[in-house]
Amino acid sequence: NRLHATDVTSSSFRLVWPQLLSQDSGFYSLQYGPGGDPAARSTLQVPGAQSSLVLTHLAPGTTYEVALIPESNVHYFPPQRTRVTTLPEEISPVQVLISDSGPHSFQVSWAPVLDSVATYQVLYGPLPGNSAKLLQVDGSHNSTLVEHLAPNTTYLVTVTAIYRSGKEKSLSAKACTLEGEQGQ
């Protein structure tokens, strides 16, 4: 029954510890930061009645060293320490799929869909050539229909995830439209 972490994500975790203090007997000093970098440590004061706390805005794939120091005016409690490693950053898209190809349209879908993505941009244009068109897709969606295409043509499709943080990740796939009906 010691200081430990639960609900670990790529940017947060919850710290849980035994109730050593009460509201009246002191407070906790919580120090945390990436391992091996004392300069990057943060210190929080936590009321004595509290026995858990969620730390947010953390770096993904990073090991944090956490020290909980009970500051009691009644008893001496030794500091409790733990190390917590955040999950690696999920990235999107890691796959782009083309389906339902017709002479004038195809479906583009991608995965995974992450909360951290604000919007997707789907850029498509015939190969070879540089006449690409752009579709904006809400970050909660994972597919879109691309229409008004030329038959029997190879298109380059690039899906770009635009993260809420401003970062971008792109992935491309090729798509071929079917031959049109003769005599149209």
Automatic annotation (TrEMBL):
Keywords: Glycoprotein, Repeat, Secreted, Signal. SUPFAM superfamilies: Fibronectin type III. It comes from the Eukaryota. The keyword DNA repair does not apply. PROSITE patterns: FN3. One of its GO terms (cellular component) is extracellular region. Residues 1-90, 92-180 form the Fibronectin type-III domain. It is found in: Secreted, Extracellular space. InterPro entries: ECM_Regulatory_Proteins, FN3_dom, FN3_sf, Ig-like_fold. Gene3D superfamilies: Immunoglobulins. It holds the Pfam family fn3. This is VWA1 protein. It comes from Pheucticus melanocephalus (Black-headed grosbeak). The lineage of its organism: Eukaryota, Metazoa, Chordata, Craniata, Vertebrata.
